[in-house]
């Protein structure tokens, strides 16, 4: 017994040790996982507050950092034998941890890092931009995370930071490629990274006035004036305000006022052109010296603001172009410094140029636009697209139509410049705004500190004049500068106004509300009306749905959005006319005619029936796309597959091979028993709609009915996604994949495109409502993707659009188009008519780099293409785009904007394609349709590929509404206006 006991002891001990070891291992694994997790927004916000209260801020201690890499105590400097060193603070451990886990870099000390860490194109220059936003937050929030740490002596050495900056810029500017691709970013960072002793007085002036207004709301009017239109007379106004309110101010606030007045006096100190002479001795290049000397000589006695601004703008443009010549990096840095000084000159003196007539106003706009382009807010090629119209001020007269076109091109200069700031800084702003709301002001401050502010105001003044001449007057609440509001889609709506700032992908929207977005979400659910600052492009899915369904849609400026914030939550009436003028007013001010619009709508809701009479559900084998054509649309499959099959016959070299999974295969699977129910998937679906109708008859509210349906459809969606595919179907798919696409299932990447019978109806387009699986290679992912596509019509967004506009939304049948991926260089959409400008014979095209961006609403390169010319409506402004690797999935890459997307050859191919479609498609399809087409296409190595075609559907009710026609002014386009006319 003892022997048996003695044998049992080690066994038990061994088991106990094993369990204990397993437990410890599991615990450590869990802790490692926990430690590796990024900090939450709440955690980061808490850390920010901790740093603010710490006398060392984000820093741990101060050390010497020697050339050989050694680190020494503050009182033990680096000895001569190991070279000179620099002294500065070390980061707190938690700061290092945050940088590793979140990629967020607080309190960066430049001398702590190599320039390569900051100049990081592959990382979208995140550290560089975070340094800039950190500097901004310090100016508007009393040091921000360094609130007390800014007094931590020795933590940062100004001379070491400036030396680092000088070295950094000389290295970056030594490469011409950097100036071509990243001119905007390089020049913009020079306002934050120290490299000389100059101060950014404009930024300091705005920051100090903001700090005062935050503490003293009665100062807000003066702050707005200082931010939007700074003049020397503002100094007197601030001094008067301080004198009148001094008795009620504490000493700290009085000190803030005195500091602001000092900065304002320095900012408005008259600029002496001769002060630029100091650069002549520093420049090495004789050509640059000569240019600068000529500029100084020509303007050293200039006292007129208009002359000084014109000359400065032209010399800034000369500098930008000259920087691409073969000159040294030190000369490039000096010339950029001069460019920044001249921008400040224009910023200071712009308010003193008061045009007396229309010609002078046009001249002012042209030169402010030129200076903005010279500052990098537009690319060189973009500005060259605008010059012909903006430089037309030498003529004696212009027609009202010609002047209106000049106004549109002037607005483009403002919008393109503004979007440059957003494109580069939106990502880092949203990152920081997640834990520090003050970050939301960063982009606005950048724009207000640039010439875009003055350009926008000058364009607004021209817009006000032309609006009066055209009777094209917007009535948008009490906003200032309403000429910057322009209608995109006609329509009218009434509902609660919701003003949304920042990115919006996770926003829940309501179909009875009117939304004002910085940028609309790419998968927008039904809404009553929209207005956007970043309109994306005219042919994105969101814009096409808005146009198709008569949803009023307008573009507006950041300032307009800010002005509408006070009306957030109020009931409003919103209308966009056929010519693009906009009405937005309180619902209580609606006329009897406007109220009647909604009384009629309540009595008769216009809906469309999905035709199902000819649908073929008996075809249950995978089809070669070559075997279908337009006649099969809505019968065997949806219009994507049918029309692409048609295009394959017409343009065999421009269309890929493809497979079609018809409606019948979906219905076959839906007729199988659904787990945990007494019937099939199809029985369950129809029961949902029967019960919903019974609820309506019982008087239940539509919101309760919708909530019930969405909950039940969520269950159905999950069931479809987890169903087992029929083995015979899988074998059929494998065989067809091999014979048609030339590879085994899982060997080449493919797109799975949802293709339902509810798309491209006569009066309804389902553009973008259902799922597309991108570039999938793995066999199991393809099979799973089929089920995901079948389930996608039952998502909340897709269902809500169908429910709102279709009479029989339950009768949706998805087919699937399976096509091999084409890793296009750029892709986009072509509409075979001019949408907002142009004629029925023109083309509207929008292209983004990589795959799929334009249809998803990216800020794409948008053009009006005619038989002989093309007009750039907007340049691309998306920093990220997708490529499609052969291994499947997507590879996100970073774009630059120095060249247009479409080249001359591409545009010629697009014209040729459009001409062929208009001629051949109606004949081949034996269709009486004569309207425009919506075509998705792409280019790979300049070869055109066709991916989809559908009718372009517009909302005839909105376009033909008697009310909308009544608010559309009758414009005499041929009215002649003398440019000598007083403003």
In words, what does this structure look like?
- The chain is of the alpha+beta class and 983 residues long.
- The protein has 4 domains: 18-197, no CATH class; 355-470, no CATH class; 475-603, Glucose Oxidase, domain 1, CATH 3.50.30; 623-957, ATP-grasp fold, B domain (D-amino Acid Aminotransferase, Chain A, domain 1), CATH 3.30.470.
- Helix content is 46%, strand content 14%.
- The chain is built from 32 helices and 26 strands.
- It has an 8-stranded mixed sheet. It has a 6-stranded antiparallel sheet with strand order 21-20-19-18-24-25.
- A hairpin with a 4-residue loop joins strand 20 and strand 21.
- The longest helix is centred in the N-terminal third of the chain and has 35 residues, at 2-36.
- The chain is globular and about 85 Å long.
- The N and C termini lie far apart (114 Å).
- One of its GO terms (molecular function) is ATP binding.
- Residues 709-957 form the Pyruvate phosphate dikinase AMP/ATP-binding domain.
Task: Give descriptors for this structure.
983 residues, alpha+beta, Glucose Oxidase, domain 1, 4 domains, eight-stranded mixed sheet, six-stranded antiparallel sheet, 32 helices, 26 strands, 46% helix, globular, pyruvate
What CATH calls the topology of the largest domain is D-amino Acid Aminotransferase, Chain A, domain 1
Task: Kindly report the average pLDDT value.
Answer: 86
How many beta-strand segments?
26
Estimate the strand proportion.
Answer: 5-15%
CATH architecture annotation name of the largest domain? 2-Layer Sandwich
Total domain count? 4
The largest β sheet comes out as: 8 strands, mixed
Question: At the first level of CATH, what is the class of the largest domain?
Answer: Alpha Beta
Could you give the distance between the termini? Answer: 114 Å
Radius of gyration: 32 Å
**Order of strands, widest sheet:** 5-12-11-7-8-9-10-6
Q: SS-based structural class?
A: alpha+beta
Characterize the overall form.
globular
What is the CATH homology-level superfamily of the largest domain?
A: ATP-grasp fold, B domain
Poorly predicted ranges (pLDDT <50, ≥5 residues)? 1-22, 601-605
Q: Level of helix content?
A: 40-55%
């Amino acid at each position: 017994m003892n022997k048996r006991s003695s044998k049992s002891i080690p066994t038990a001990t061994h088991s106990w040790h094993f369990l204990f070891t397993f437990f410890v291992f599991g615990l450590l694994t869990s802790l490692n996982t926990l430690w590796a997790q990024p900090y939450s927004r709440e955690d980061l916000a808490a850390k920010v507050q901790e740093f603010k209260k710490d006398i060392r801020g984000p820093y741990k201690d101060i050390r010497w950092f020697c050339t050989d890499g050694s680190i020494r105590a503050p009182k033990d400097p680096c000895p001569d034998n190991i070279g000179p060193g620099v002294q500065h603070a070390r980061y707190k451990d938690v700061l290092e941890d945050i940088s590793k886990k979140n990629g967020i870099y607080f309190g960066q000390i430049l001398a702590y890092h190599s320039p390569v860490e900051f100049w990081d194109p592959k990382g979208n220059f995140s550290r560089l931009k975070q340094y800039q936003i950190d500097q901004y937050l310090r100016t508007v929030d009393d040091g921000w995370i360094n609130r007390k740490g800014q007094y931590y002596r020795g933590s940062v050495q100004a001379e070491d930071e400036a030396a680092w900056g000088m070295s950094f810029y000389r290295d970056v500017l030594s490469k011409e490629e950097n100036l071509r691709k990243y001119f905007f970013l390089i020049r913009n960072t020079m306002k934050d990274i120290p490299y000389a002793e100059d101060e950014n007085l404009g930024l300091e002036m705005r920051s100090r006035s903001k700090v005062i207004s935050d503490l003293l709301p009665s100062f807000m009017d003066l702050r707005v004036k200082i931010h939007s239109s700074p003049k020397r007379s503002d100094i007197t106004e601030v001094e008067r305000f301080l004198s009148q309110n001094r008795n009620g101010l504490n000493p700290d606030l009085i000190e803030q006022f005195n500091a602001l007045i000092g900065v304002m006096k320095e900012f408005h100190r008259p600029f002496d052109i001769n002060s630029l002479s100091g650069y002549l001795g520093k420049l090495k290049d004789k050509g640059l010296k000569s240019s600068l000397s000529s500029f100084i000589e020509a303007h050293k006695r200039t006292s007129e603001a208009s002359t000084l601004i014109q000359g400065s703008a032209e010399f800034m443009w000369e500098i930008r172009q000259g920087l691409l010549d073969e000159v040294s990096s030190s000369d490039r840095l000096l010339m950029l410094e001069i460019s920044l000084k001249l921008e400040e000159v224009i910023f200071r003196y712009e308010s003193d140029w008061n045009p007396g007539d229309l010609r002078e106003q046009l001249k002012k706009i042209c030169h402010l636009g030129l200076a903005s382009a010279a500052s990098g807010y537009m690319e060189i090629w973009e500005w060259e697209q605008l010059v012909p119209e903006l430089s037309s001020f030498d003529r004696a007269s212009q027609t009202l139509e010609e002047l209106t076109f000049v106004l549109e091109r002037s607005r483009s200069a403002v919008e393109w410049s503004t979007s440059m700031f957003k494109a580069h800084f939106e990502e880092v702003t949203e990152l920081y705004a997640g834990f520090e709301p003050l970050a939301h002001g960063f982009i606005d401050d950048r724009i207000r500190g640039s010439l875009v502010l003055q350009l926008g105001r000058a364009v607004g003044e021209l817009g006000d004049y032309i609006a009066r001449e055209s009777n094209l007057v917007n009535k948008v609440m009490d906003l200032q500068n309403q000429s910057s509001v322009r209608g995109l889609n006609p329509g009218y709506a009434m509902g609660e106004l919701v003003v949304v700032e920042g990115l919006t992908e996770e926003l829940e929207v309501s179909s009875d509300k009117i939304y004002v977005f910085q940028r609309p979400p790419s998968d927008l659910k039904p809404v009553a009306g929209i207005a956007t600052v970043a309109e994306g492009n005219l042919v994105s899915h969101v814009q096409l749905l808005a146009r198709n369904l008569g949803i009023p849609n307008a573009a507006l400026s950041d300032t307009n959005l800010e002005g509408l914030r006070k009306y957030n939550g109020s009931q409003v009436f919103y209308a966009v006319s056929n010519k693009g003028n906009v009405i937005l007013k309180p619902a209580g001010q609606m006329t009897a005619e406007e109220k009647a619009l909604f009384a009629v709508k309540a009595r008769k809701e216009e809906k469309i029936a999905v035709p199902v009479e000819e649908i073929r559900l008996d075809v249950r084998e995978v089809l070669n796309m070559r075997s279908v054509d337009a006649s099969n649309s809505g019968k065997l499959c949806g219009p994507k597959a049918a029309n692409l099959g048609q295009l394959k016959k017409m343009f065999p070299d421009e269309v890929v091979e493809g497979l079609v999974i018809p409606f019948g295969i979906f219905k076959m699977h839906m007729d199988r028993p659904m787990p945990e129910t007494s019937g099939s998937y199809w029985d369950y679906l129809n029961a949902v709609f029967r019960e919903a109708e019974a609820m309506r008859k019982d008087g239940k509210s539509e919101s309760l009915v919708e909530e019930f349906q969405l909950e039940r459809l969520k269950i159905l969606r999950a069931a479809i996604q987890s169903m087992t595919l029929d083995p015979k179907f899988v074998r059929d798919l494998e065989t067809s994949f091999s014979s048609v696409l030339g590879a085994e299932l899982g060997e080449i990447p493919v797109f799975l495109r949802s293709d339902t019978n509810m798309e491209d109806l006569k009066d309804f387009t389902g553009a973008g409502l259902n799922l597309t699986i991108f570039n999938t290679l793995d066999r199991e992912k393809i099979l799973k993707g089929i089920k995901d596509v079948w389930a996608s019509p039952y998502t909340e967004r897709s269902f809500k659009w169908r429910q709102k506009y279709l009479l029989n939304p339950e009768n949706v049948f998805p087919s699937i188009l399976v096509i091999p991926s084409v890793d296009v260089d750029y892709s986009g959409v072509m509409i075979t008519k001019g949408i907002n400008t142009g004629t029925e014979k023109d083309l509207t095209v929008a292209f983004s780099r990589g795959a799929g961006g334009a249809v998803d609403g990216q800020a794409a390169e948008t053009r009006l293409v005619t038989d002989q010319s093309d007009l750039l409506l907007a340049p691309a402004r998306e920093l990220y785009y997708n490529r499609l690797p052969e291994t499947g999935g997507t590879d996100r890459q970073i774009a630059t904007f120095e060249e247009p997307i479409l080249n001359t050859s591409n545009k010629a191919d697009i014209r040729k394609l459009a001409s062929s479609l208009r001629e051949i498609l109606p004949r081949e399809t034996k269709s009486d349709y004569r309207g425009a087409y919506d075509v998705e296409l792409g280019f790979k190595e300049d070869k055109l590929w066709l991916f989809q075609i559908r009718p372009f559907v517009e909302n005839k009710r909105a376009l033909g509404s008697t009310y909308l026609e009544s608010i559309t002014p009758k414009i005499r386009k041929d009215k002649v206006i003398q440019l000598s006319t007083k403003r």
